[in-house]
Write the structure tokens for this entry.
Amino acid sequence: MDITTERLLIAFGLTLFAGLSTGIGSAIAFYTRQTNQKFLAGALGFSAGVMVYVSLIEIFAKARTSLEAVFGPSRGYLVTTLAFFAGIALIALIDRFVPKGENPHEVRDVKEMSGARVYDPNLLRMGLFSALAIAIHNFPEGLATFTSAVQDPALGISIAMAIAIHNIPEGIAVSVPIYFATGSRRRAFSLSFLSGISEPLGALVGYLLLMRFFNEAMFGLVFAGVAGIMVYISLDELLPTAEKYGEHHLAIYGVIAGMAVMAASLLLFS
């Protein structure tokens, strides 16, 4: 097996792991009595710290190096910056078209599972739209994980772990309303689990569309866009969700810890 094939398999595997971790959130909803809000707040903050640090310190820098080699120092820096904000614009546009009433980042508590079930079709609709919204959000996340892992497997592992943590509350958000609407744990878990499939699908589409054109300029553009996507996800999704669990300082400590761990990782493996 040559290194290219090996890296592709690692990248797809990491993306699959990150996407299907929505099933972990679903399992937590069914098999624990209460949400460990302190843990989730700290974990989401940690995930945000990892993603912001690696995006601004490592991914943006590598994208800039590639684009400066193609376009020269001044123009290359400009193109990198534009691609970074284009990534932010892409994920913000996706966010714009997700119905507010079915926000996949609405905090749900697993204690809700112990209440009396109400067979309300509106709850089913909410759960299904939450699953769809998460699938849409996960598509660019899959591309981000896959692209990073192809370039650097160690970097891909860090990003996959951060996105996997971020997907856990999403699994709860899908499972709770679907379970209330249908009374079926199996259906709730299946839909929650499957909503993560779009992440490896994003990787597959990215591979099919981009890899045949993957030169130095394309790599720089995609990598800079990935940095923008991950910064937006951290600021718009991870930190606000951590705050909703009511553990502000733990979330901030998590951010700092995530940055420190990512910095140490980059120093050790550089």
Residues 147 and 223 are 7 Å apart (CA to CA). The chain has a mean pLDDT of 78. The chain is about 85% helix and 0% strand. Residues 3-269 form one domain.
